[in-house]
Amino acid sequence: MKILVTGTANGIGKAIAQKFLDCGYDVAGLDILPATVIHPHYVHFVADIAFADLPPIDGVDILINNAGVQNSGNDIDVNLKGSMRVTERYGVRQGIKSVLFIASTSASTGSEFPEYAASKGGLVSYMKNVALRLAPLGATCNSLSPGGVATALNEHVMSDPALWAQIMEETPLKKWASAEEIAEWAYFVTVINKSMTAQDILIDNGESARAKFVW
Predict the structure, then answer these.
(1) pTM of the complete model
(2) CATH number of the domain that 76 lies in?
């Protein structure tokens, strides 16, 4: 099977690509940056999913939309519209087996930067639309909504003891997920799962369930 993953140059996307390669799949990566994954079964395409022509990539069995930006001024263009362009090009077609979107807990909570939260909320809504259109083809479509993930993108708060203490105060399990853990979820939802579709899965160590009871 051929797996197409966007945003494979670093972070969650790179971990997802590596997970599928480790499991013996052929993986195509699509990123605005050059390749950082080196493997005989990996091919890399440099492209801007929001503002440039998308390359011809045939025979995609599983599509994982991971590419995204945060507080960039182009969050909706990249995170939402870019993912829509990629999905309509490679995912909504006969032969597709599964489509996955990497959203965010901010899609549910509304926290973080306004345009980022709006882009991820729109992504979850669009996921449900795609799931309905792919169902007659026997394909699944879901999204993962991570909370904090230990990647370079979040180094600013991870390396600041005061900010990290505040974050852990809001996180019941007192930790963040790793990129490799999100990759395990991506593999399960797209390969192992056969019956769940149109669902968003929160992976946030309990942050969105935080509730302080005052009596």
Answers:
(1) 0.96
(2) 3.40.50.720
